[in-house]
């Protein structure tokens, strides 16, 4: 009977692992990347099967002395953690700054915007003159580099110029491609945005 029970438990564990419904200590949200309507925009389905499973949104064990609501960005492993408390966090896959644009430090969320306007900074326009046409701002939309949401990072010196934002480029998650901003898949930034409060602490490691 004991061997039979062990066999049943092993089969259940294997079934769960194959289905991708859970992770150690929490739940995986692989099914939450379908097409959706948001503020009148039709967000397309993300082909999540093409994104490595480790970058799918999932609740994980994460011991931290930081209070719930804090965001911790692990640039090396390309993860963003939203601290929930009780040793748990929601983890998202991210894209980070490419070589020469990496940074680390502590900031806070000063502003939150749904379907934001994107204005390329002057240094970016200098590097990419073709962006000059957006010097006055690129209107919100499915092709906007900031995606469905943006949260603006400030420190004691004011606006750092960095954002936590969505991106239509789901294929960039897990890679170092940005100019220093932290990008998430659009469905993930919407989820994170709803969890995060203005004033939240952000630690970039």
Q: What layout of secondary structure does this protein have?
A:
Blueprint lengths: L1 H18 L2 E2 L2 E2 L8 E3 L2 E3 L14 E4 L9 E4 L4 E7 L2 E6 L2 E2 L7 E10 L7 H6 L21 E7 L2 E10 L8 E3 L3 E4 H10 L5 E4 L1
Parallel strand pairs: 6-15, 9-13, 12-14
Antiparallel strand pairs: 1-2, 3-4, 5-8, 6-7, 7-8, 10-11, 10-15, 11-12
Descriptors for this entry?
L,D-transpeptidase catalytic domain-like; two-stranded antiparallel ribbon; about 200 residues; single chain; alpha+beta; nine-stranded mixed sheet
H/E series: HEEEEEEEEEEHEEEEHE
| Average pLDDT | 86
Q: What is the count of helical runs?
A: 3
Number of domains: 1
Strand order of the largest sheet: 5-8-7-6-15-10-11-12-14
CATH architecture: Beta Barrel
| Beta-strand percentage range | 25-35%
CATH hierarchy, class: Mainly Beta
As residue ranges, the low-confidence spans are 1-23
> Assembly state here?
single chain
Structural class: alpha+beta
Helix content: 10-25%
Condensed summary:
This protein has 205 residues and is of the alpha+beta class. The chain has helices at 2-19, 122-127, 186-195, and strands spanning 22-23, 26-27, 36-38, 41-43, 58-61, 71-74, 79-85, 88-93, 96-97, 105-114, 149-155, 158-167, 176-178, 182-185, 201-204.
């Amino acid at each position: 009977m004991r061997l039979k029970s062990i066999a049943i438990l092993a089969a259940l564990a294997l079934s769960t692992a194959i289905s991708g419904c859970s992770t150690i200590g929490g739940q995986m949200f692989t099914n939450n990347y379908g097409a959706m309507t948001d503020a009148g925009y039709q967000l397309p389905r993300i082909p999540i099967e093409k994104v490595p499973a480790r970058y799918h949104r999932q609740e994980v064990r994460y011991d931290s002395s930081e209070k719930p609501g804090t965001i911790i960005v692990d640039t090396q492993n390309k993860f963003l953690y939203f601290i929930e408390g009780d040793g748990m966090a929601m983890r998202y896959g991210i894209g980070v700054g490419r070589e020469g644009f990496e940074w680390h430090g502590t900031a806070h969320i000063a502003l939150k915007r749904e379907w934001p306007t994107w204005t390329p900074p002057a240094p970016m326009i200098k590097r990419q003159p073709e962006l000059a046409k957006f010097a006055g701002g690129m209107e919100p939309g499915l092709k906007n580099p900031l995606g469905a949401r943006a949260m603006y990072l400030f420190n004691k010196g004011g606006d750092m110029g960095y954002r936590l934002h969505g991106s239509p480029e789901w294929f960039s998650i897990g890679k170092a491609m940005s100019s220093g901003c932290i990008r998430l898949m659009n469905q993930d930034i919407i989820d994170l945005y709803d969890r995060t409060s203005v004033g939240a602490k952000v630690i970039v490691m």
